[in-house]
User: Which sequence fits this backbone?
């Protein structure tokens, strides 16, 4: 059950009331927490390698330049001393590094429920739901275009699972809602069905402004309170190679000016929009990200930003994008090294190419999630629910991925490798002696309920017990769980006046026609 | 196709002949190679933590002692100065560390085909087939007891996949062969269906001696040649907690005396045969392993040995063993740190609790395989084919796991993170420019065929192409592949006189009644 439910119940029953309820919850999940990654990152590059990638990124920025298809951004960078020729902007290393010097290494985003605030940076790691697939797939209905009902289902899953920290982009694109008002309906659901950090797509000034205003109203904040600290964020993508488009830069600048975080994530598939060699693809990606970040730091020094990586490779036989490959893992790790060199927070993803939640989907997703851990990633996008290279969101996959995410959370807990005298258990080893059994000893009895990770969708029974219970494979178990979760979902509370303000705003903006759709 | 096939064909067609055949091979797999792991291991323990685990292991050995249910071993250790009381043997740190000082940090095992020799130790990593399940499962036949036909199927898979380096224990126990002659029939098939390193179960003197003799004959070696260097190996398990049984120690001593490697792998499930706390379970496991290794080094200083870990946890609700858990990963990493402290090679495993080759099986196996990489494991047992906590061997799982193993091999290749000027690709980035595409440029054309990992069972096509082709899930694709592989399998050549000697030996030993079955 979600934290919010716990809190409501605990008012009635306290700790005992909580415990009594545990049996009736759909699953017994880990509590809300922000994992802190204790591992030293995996570093494929030596110091010279880091410098070589960095210098290549700097050469790209200073010798080739980036196309900035946003006149305002170009004018600002010209004023900042960059070499501008039409839409091409060249910036030298001194400028870039000076701008990076303003950016914070870590920041906190506080959503309408302050208990759900997230720390982005340092050793912290947060997980974001699957974002932006046009389609949904589940075991019952197969593949179909995204719609608003499905959007809401995923929002409920996003809220339900404590291991999902951020309600990122739309888990599916609800094509049954007209694009002019889609952001209004979607954000209304996101802000009422969840109390977690939300995100604005940078797809036009009106949308961005609407989402900022809705987030402000949902939190009952004054404009000054909203501007005073990060309350939501945006993620922008470059148009690789070497381009930033108009609306993405526009949205990024709007958020930066109000102190709201911007994640810049180039999408550089090696062999397609980037060099076929991974270090080259990484250097290109970094150059593109740094160019936007330098712009934002010039506009509002110290504004919160992060570098995202989406560097993978294509299948050279078909041109299809591949995810969770060895090359993807190394690109993510290399990016982590460079992002730490630049002193910024980092985003990567939980991704796969598989079309259904089967074995392939889980080894690809596991590879990408462990690469996130190994690279020191702070924000893991698409951490639950992604299939078909991001073209499908699946509720079964969402549930299965959350099991893996919980295991990563548990992996991060120092209890798993603690070496106090109690952990080393010499006295218990003496007590049990040769040929004895540890189930019954006091050392075990004192610890057994919290000693190990407890799964919710894994089946650890032997084959015969599993078979007698219907021989249900993982994806089918996940299907049943997701339906139960939806059936018993309760939305988090929102103060009546905030809800009223939010409702009124949406109604007014709809009456005004929403956002233009011709950008 | 296997290397061996390539070599046979290449005599006829040379390089061109090889290429022409590539299209008709069942799968296009990576060539035989021993992966070298370039990553710094993940080290959850700090230096003090390493010392604390070490000191606990030493206290277990010196204060509690180990039960050695083998009178010969006890007598030898008494002679060595250990404190003996009945079957209890206590050894102090000085003795253990002195004995460890004799053991090599790395050794090579050379099977009948010297091209298949494996290096155990250092940064090398080799993969062993699934070993010892009593049952088999496949999509068509479901779960059933192991039999000789199934044993042979798995031997063919073991030979076929270049990423499987060692033909370890029996992939299934063939219960249709009488135990007195089972080792003769099994080793005959192993030695003729594969040309990779083989293993002897330490289950009685006759079996161990027979397997050594058969390995010698299959390689056409004199006794002196056999004894001169590692040709095969055994793996022994302690009876945790704190016991070594008679046949395991007997087999280990027999191999050590002839210079053949011994891997010592306690099976310490935290909460069952070991403390519920992971550091305690690791300390117990190490103590048990070190006691046997000290014995072997006293008997034959410098004999090749390795420390295995099989420390996982149980499900505290049911007592069922769990694998690939966060606790399993940390235990493996901690063991890696201690094994490096002792200067020995290390074994761990690819394991899962799942009953079928579904999503759960792959996240659990991925977790355990990445823990192997992170821990600096040299020998990965059960790397392909394991299900149900080791009670089932599955050919579909075998094929699926080999995809993950190949990805790990590729991950280890430095090409994935190289930073030469060619890799950084600045000239290509300039050439393609903004908004261009990298498919066509010379830099891509020169590299596309080897730039990325090429999968054989993953399906990277989009949903619609995958659906039109039958919407086949991973386990079913693996099922089809395994059948094709068996249908087209060709055994590696063995010189006629070696085969004759081997056949004669087996016939004679069968006539003599094989091995006693009353131990």
Assistant:
């Amino acid at each position: 059950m979600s934290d919010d439910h716990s809190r409501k119940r605990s008012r009635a029953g306290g700790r005992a009331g909580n415990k009594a309820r545990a049996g009736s919850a759909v699953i017994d999940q880990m509590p809300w927490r922000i994992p802190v990654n204790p591992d030293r990152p995996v570093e494929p590059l030596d110091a010279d390698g880091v410098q070589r990638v960095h210098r290549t990124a700097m050469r790209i920025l200073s010798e080739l330049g980036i196309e900035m298809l946003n006149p305002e951004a170009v004018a600002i960078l010209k004023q900042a001393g960059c070499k501008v020729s039409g839409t091409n902007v060249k910036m030298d290393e001194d400028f870039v590094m000076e701008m990076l010097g303003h950016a914070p290494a870590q920041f906190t985003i506080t959503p309408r429920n302050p208990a759900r605030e997230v720390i982005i940076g340092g050793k912290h790691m947060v997980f974001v739901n699957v974002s932006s697939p046009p389609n949904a797939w589940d075991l019952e209905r197969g593949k179909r275009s995204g719609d608003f009902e499905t959007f809401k289902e995923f929002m409920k899953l996003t809220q339900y699972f404590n291991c999902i920290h951020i309600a990122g982009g739309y888990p599916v694109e609800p094509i049954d809602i007209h694009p002019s008002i889609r952001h209004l309906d979607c954000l209304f659901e996101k802000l009422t069905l969840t109390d977690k950090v939300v995100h604005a797509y940078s797809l036009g000034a009106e949308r961005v402004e609407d989402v900022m205003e809705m987030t402000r109203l949902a939190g009952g904040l004054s404009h000054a309170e909203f501007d005073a600290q990060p309350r939501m964020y945006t993620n922008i993508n470059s148009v690789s190679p070497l381009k930033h488009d108009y609306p993405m830069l526009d949205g990024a600048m709007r958020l930066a000016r109000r102190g709201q975080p911007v994640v810049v994530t180039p999408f550089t598939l090696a062999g397609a929009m980037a060099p076929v060699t991974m270090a080259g693809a990484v250097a290109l990606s970094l150059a593109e990200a740094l160019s936007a970040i330098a712009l934002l730091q010039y506009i509002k020094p110290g504004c919160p930003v992060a570098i995202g990586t989406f560097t993978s490779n294509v299948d050279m036989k078909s041109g299809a994008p591949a995810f969770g490959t060895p090359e993807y893992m190394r690109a993510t790790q290399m990016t982590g090294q460079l992002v730490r060199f630049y002193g910024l927070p980092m985003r990567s993803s939980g991704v796969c190419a598989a079309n259904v939640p089967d074995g392939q989907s889980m080894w690809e997703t596991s590879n990408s999630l462990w690469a996130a851990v190994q690279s020191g990633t702070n924000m893991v996008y698409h951490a639950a629910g992604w299939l078909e290279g991001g073209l499908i969101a699946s509720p079964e996959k969402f549930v299965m991925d959350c099991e893996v995410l919980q295991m990563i959370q548990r992996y991060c807990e120092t209890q798993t490798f603690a070496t106090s005298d109690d952990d080393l258990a010499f006295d218990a080893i003496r007590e049990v002696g040769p040929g004895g059994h540890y189930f019954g000893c006091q050392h075990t009895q004192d610890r057994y309920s919290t000693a190990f990770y407890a799964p919710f969708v894994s089946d650890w029974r032997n084959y015969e017990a599993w078979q007698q219970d219907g021989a249900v494979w993982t994806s089918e178990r996940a299907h049943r769980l997701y339906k139960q979760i939806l059936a018993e979902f309760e939305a988090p509370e929102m103060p009546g006046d905030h809800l009223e303000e939010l409702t009124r705003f949406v109604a007014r903006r709809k009456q005004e026609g929403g956002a233009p759709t011709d950008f």
Summary: Chain A touches chain B through 128 residues (CB under 8 Å). Residues 1-23 of chain A have pLDDT under 50 and may be disordered.
